[in-house]
Specification:
alpha+beta, NADH Oxidase, four-stranded antiparallel beta sheet, 4 strands, about 40% helix
Length: about 220
């Protein structure tokens, strides 16, 4: 498999098999991902991996507190504008269409949202953290690292779903992971083997290159 194939095949999987992922698989994945570039080679990422009883405890805490906690950062601006608002709306509508939940079924949509707290049944959860004293360039470096993890997972026959949902549980995760005071959680990631489920048929739309690229100086 080449990089282009991995990029094309990667999707956000929201239903996983219970098949286990080994510690060796996870370590190998992270060792390869560590080649991700970062400004000044700071390598600002910190990764905490939960499986088994440790992951079950997190799932239980999320179930007990479905509303979450005050987040340390806002995932989206308070009032999105187009084209960003349109893209987010399309993504949500396309997702719920795959599982037959109409917009007026608020209870059904909230029930599906709560599946984030169960990592969609994945056997492994990765939680990506960084020192809160670092700035936007290091957040970008962390994003590149997360993307590398996801693409390498595809190569290894695994699937992922990056979850900024976990930004809603900063205190819970800090306690459970034993985070030092200077570290904060950026996001989580479900890792495992994709189940055959209608929700995993979703491949989100992309606007054409001409909508967001300016090319100058070419013949």
């Amino acid at each position: 498999m080449n990089v282009a194939e991995a990029v094309e095949q990667r999707i956000s999987v929201r239903s996983f098999k219970s098949d286990p992922v080994t510690k060796q698989q996870v370590v190998r994945l992270l060792e390869k991902a560590a080649r991700t570039p970062s400004g000044g080679n700071l390598q600002p990422w910190r990764v905490y991996v939960l499986a088994g009883a440790a992951l079950d405890e997190l799932k239980g805490r999320a179930t007990a507190n479905p509303l979450g906690e005050p987040p340390e950062y806002q995932v989206y601006p308070a009032s999105l504008w187009d084209p960003y608002r349109r893209r987010r709306w399309e993504c949500g509508e396309d997702l719920y269409t795959t599982i037959g939940i109409p917009r007026e079924d608020r209870a059904g949509r909230l029930q599906q949202l709560a599946q984030n707290g169960q990592l969609f049944g994945a056997p492994v959860g990765l939680f990506f953290c960084l020192d809160r004293r670092l700035g936007p360039p290091q957040w970008a470096d962390l994003g590149m690292f997360i993307q590398t993890v996801m693409l390498l997972a595809v190569e290894d026959g695994l699937s992922t779903c990056a979850q900024e949902y976990w930004s809603r549980y900063p205190r819970t995760l800090a306690d459970l992971l034993g985070l030092p005071v200077e570290e904060m959680v950026f996001c989580g990631m479900a890792l495992g083997y994709a189940d055959e489920h209608p929700i995993n048929t979703l491949k989100t739309r992309r606007d054409p290159v001409s909508d967001w690229t300016a090319l100058r100086g070419f013949n």
